[in-house]
Design a protein that fits this description.
CATH architecture of the largest domain: Sandwich
Shape: globular
Largest sheet: 14 strands, mixed
Number of helices: 9
Structural class: alpha+beta
Number of strands: 14
């Protein structure tokens, strides 16, 4: 297997770069010869995927958080939003957020992750395709690999990404969510799933989930399957600030479905728009904040192959 490590040296406030000797040792101990490519700045991971594709790399082991994985996923869509083939992906733990790998049970142990990479049978997984409005008001198309959401999640991302992350992913996101909750105002939104009305209400947050975890360990979509061709829609709506805070413990445990103010649906295409065009409802996409509603989300089934 021609294996290349794609490293974001700044992930996890630099911890990914500092762990490079340990990463390489774990791979070699598992019998995995490899070469290395490092990102030079924001958005550079997609270029490195293109280089790996041209070099005939069979598997790309991504070292970074969910933001790095999101950058990687952009290289698997063409300009028209159609899936592009590329190398298999593998997950090596590092970064501020590691929510996507939790869906597959990939823990923080590098040696164990290297052995999984070596022994895993590649499995097809779905890639999210999001059409949205960017911060300049233009319609853009972006890929997402884990969870896209809007409402409180988008505001939380803005706060977290503007704050120091030395406390680690889970604490950073939890504190960011508390700060966002203090100023966030529920805004009325209309949500359609496969063209049918799903929700029309003031929302705290609505998650469109390919994976099961987001926000530094919140088990937002306990039944999501990244290979079923469907998005799990989890809407938190008509909740006061106190009710939202009270629901947080259930969300971390994944026991919130069925609670008052929680609606769950599943479908291939999700569309959402604010009921009042002047309202700015921010979008979270794998921990990034690319823009605001309106949006259309769908999946490219089996567009990626994962060794995990």
């Amino acid at each position: 297997m021609k294996l290349r490590v794609l490293l974001n040296p700044t992930a996890g406030t630099g911890s990914a770069g500092r762990r490079l000797p340990e990463i390489r040792q774990a791979l070699l101990a598992a019998g995995l010869q490899h070469d290395l490519a490092e990102t030079r700045g924001p958005g550079d991971a997609a270029r490195l995927v293109d280089e790996a594709r041209a070099d005939g790399v069979e598997c790309l082991a991504v070292v970074g958080g969910d933001g790095t994985l999101n950058e990687v996923s952009q290289a698997f869509l063409d300009a028209e939003g159609r899936p592009r083939p590329g190398p298999d992906l593998a997950l090596l733990p590092a970064g501020t957020g590691g929510d996507f790998r939790k869906t597959f049970g990939v823990g923080p142990d590098l040696a164990a992750a290297a052995r999984r990479l070596r022994d895993a049978t590649p499995r097809p997984i779905d890639l999210g395709v999001l059409t949205l409005t960017d911060h300049q008001g233009r319609q853009i198309r972006r890929a997402f690999i884990n969870v896209a959401s809007f409402g409180l999640g988008g505001l939380t991302d803005r706060i977290v990404n503007q704050s120091p992350k030395w406390l680690g992913g889970k604490v950073s996101f939890f504190l960011g969510a508390l700060r966002a909750m203090a100023v966030y105002r529920n805004l009325p939104v209309r949500v359609l799933v496969d063209g049918e009305p799903c929700l029309e209400a003031p929302v705290l947050n609505v998650a469109l989930a390919n994976g099961r975890y987001f926000g530094g360990g919140m088990h937002i979509a306990p039944n999501a399957d990244p290979s079923d061709g469907l998005l799990d829609v989890i809407a938190l709506y008509d909740l006061t600030r106190a009710q939202g805070i009270g629901l947080a413990a259930k969300i971390y445990r994944g026991t919130h479905p069925g609670s008052p103010g929680v609606r769950v649906a599943r479908g291939r295409v999700v569309e959402a728009a604010p009921l009042h065009s002047k309202d700015e409802v921010l979008i979270d996409m794998d921990g990034e904040t690319p823009g605001r509603l309106p949006l259309r989300a769908e999946l490219a089934p089996g567009a990626l192959r994962l060794r995990a």
